[in-house]
Amino acid sequence: MKKNSKVSAPAAAMMSQQELFWDSLYGDDLKLARATGCSCAADLEREKQKKQERQAKADAAQRQNLRENEWKRQKEKEEEKKQREKNREENKWKKQFEIAKKQAFSEGVLEAHDYGDGVYWVQCEDKRWLEVQGEYYCPLCNKQLNQSSLELHINSDAHKKKVAWSLGPSGPGAHSAPSMPAAPRAAVINTAVVKRDAPAAMAEWQTMGPDGLVRCIPCNKVVDDNHISSGDHIRRLESWLAHEQLKKTGYAAPTLEYLAYVPSVAGDDTSERWLKCLLCGKFVQDETSHSGTKENPQGSVQHKKNLTNYVGTAWYQDNVIKERLKWHPAPTVRCKPVPKPAASPAPWAAAPAPASYCGGRAPAAPAANAQPAWMRDDPPAATQRVYDPWQDEEDTKTTQVPYPSSSETRLPSADAAAEGEGEEFEC
Fold first, then answer.
1. At residue 263, what are phi and psi to the nearest 5 degrees?
2. Which residues contact residue 371 at a Cβ distance below 8 angstroms, ignoring those fewer than 6 apart?
3. Taking residues 61-65, what's their average pLDDT?
4. pTM, full prediction
5. Longest C-alpha distance within the chain, in Å?
6. Is residue 259 located within the same domain as residue 316?
7. Distances in Å between the alpha carbon of 95 and those of 23, 160, 323?
8. Is residue 332 part of a domain?
9. If you count Cβ atoms within 10 Å of the first and of the last residue's Cβ in the chain, which end, N or C, has fewer?
10. Cβ-count burial of 411 within 10 angstroms (0-12 exposed, 13-18 middle, 19+ buried)?
11. Better-scored residue on pLDDT, 424 or 118
């Protein structure tokens, strides 16, 4: 008992001190001291500090939760608003699409159908089934469309122009084309297309296409004001008209004999013909590079060399003249050939020989149209070689002027006298 009494005495003293401390407290401090077992004011202050820190954290967390909840509510409101706008736009688009679809069907657009194989099919005007990539097909424009592109297509200028050409007012001079069949299992819609007759006076460069639209032959496009005024159309039309005129009148032979209009595609005589220099083997790109004659060489450096070295030769006859005659068989103007030297009259025909010239050479009388030696090509008196550039070398003959074989006085014949100037003779 003594041992137990020794242990319980300090505990009783301690309890009395804690109770005395609690008795000095009241309200929240008392509750906090009892909850935490504080026995002095220092312990109570520490617990109050901890409680304030915990409360501050709790308040901060609560404020964060409130902000997050408010942000979520705002996002939900925005999403709901967007969804309402989306639904409104979808309803509006559906109404517009229904209107556009009715307009498209009235303008000849066909609706394609999928029969379970994942492929869209549409029946054309000639009862022919065509596989397409979209839900709709415009036969006027040959366009494959879907729900997104249908309205844009029927409102495009190109489609409107084709519809304006195809949907003309019926009258005494107009007729209706067979109506276009509706797509399989599609709503019964009037898709009859009234096509215009070809204009009474259609230009030669215009043609009526199978779709009833007037097309430009050089450009292969539908004819309208914009196309006619375009620069590409004007250039192509000029080239096309010139080509058609050449088909009717033929290609006129060029003045220079080494030029000819030959096919632009080798081996295809039906292709367009271009001007070519047969002497150089090149197509003519301008008016100066391939010009001139042998007497007056002009053009490029290589062309001048060819004029000087090859005109009048056997190669020129075989490769230039014959090739030109292949494309221009009619007689044409030829390059000026090398002129033959003018024959001088015989001495006896020009003037009587004086007696004092016996044993000597009689002077020849000057020709009527005498030229300086550097201006004419007179052959030697003994042998005269007449060169013709249009004859082969083997056909060129040499004319020998006869000489007297004895001391007799022998005059040359009339032919020889026409070629020779003067000969020696003895009295």
1. -60, 140
2. 342
3. 93
4. 0.30
5. 204
6. yes
7. 83, 22, 73
8. no
9. N
10. middle
11. 118
